[in-house]
Amino acid sequence: MQAFLALEDGTVFEGRAFGAEGETSGEVVFNTSLTGYQEALTDPSYRGQILTMTYTQIGNYGVNPDDTESQGVQVKGFLIRELSPLVSNFRSTENLNQYLKRHNVLGMEGLDTRALVRKLRNQGSMRGVLTTRKASPAELVAKARAIPTMTGQDLVREVTPKQSSPWTEGFTHPLANYLSARKATHKVVAIDFGMKRNIPKCLTQVGCSVTVVPGTSTAEEVLALKPDGIFLSNGPGDPAAVTYAVETIKGLLGKAPIFGICLGHQLLSLALGAKTFKLKFGHRGSNQPVRNESTGRVEITCQNHGFAVDRDSLPTGVEVTHVNLNDNTVEGIRHTGKKAFSVQYHPEASAGPHDSSYLFGDFVELMEGSRAAR
User: Known catalytic residues?
Assistant: First the structure.
């Protein structure tokens, strides 16, 4: 079956449909990872977006229930150069085509993904419509132009849980050994703005007793749980639009050690008085180089974000701890006085390298230091 992708600039790509049929729309973005397509598909940070993979062949190792990062597929559509006709992996339980069809998500293969990515890189992420329905190019482009831009969208409410719940699972796969298991000694409240499942697994692995609460929780509700530390998760959309979370974090600053990842990093920065801005095409992939400003060491990181913290807006007392070597944007901050730190990338390494997993240990040390100072 034919499929079409229409961009707001008037470009229309043609390809072959797989997965579900129908029509969808969203911001078209790209990911430069060679593997990890299942983790990307199920990452809530991709809410509202049509994802393009730059690697040429996708689907060769199938999908399995263990590598999902949420309850289902989060992307609005999936664009690839070639869908692998063969699946070879002892852990696979179904192929990618079956998986997307079961989750009612449209996919398209056979388009020139190199041309699409060059366009997005040069002109920036664009709104797009992906469809298997017959329509004129002009009609599809008009639909793409009518889609709301990502700026100003609060998508956290679409992915945050409705109720609080405990999390008790650490690493269960024998190949996941980059964090040593520790006995639970610290109570952590994780505010879920669209959290990837491997994050609470990492927190549990390093000795945290984790309670997950909705992203709409107030500071009073979080503090009522008497946490030793507070975690701020990743999530989708424009951080500046999630004003309720910023207010919550303001009420938590100085009350307990705070660690944030991705959207949590941006929300912490906003709560401290900084500003955020939309990147031209974002950082998405498991090969982003970041320099640790304390050690000078370069870490290869997994990233998925379209917004960044404005360095010039950071207030006094906030230190930049990590910098992206591709564009010098802020990748990490720390406020020593408030006992809070955050990173823009994903140290839980799912899917991605393990260079930055030490940050979970840093969080535990910060909680231990805070407990000793009481």
Answer: 262, 346, 348
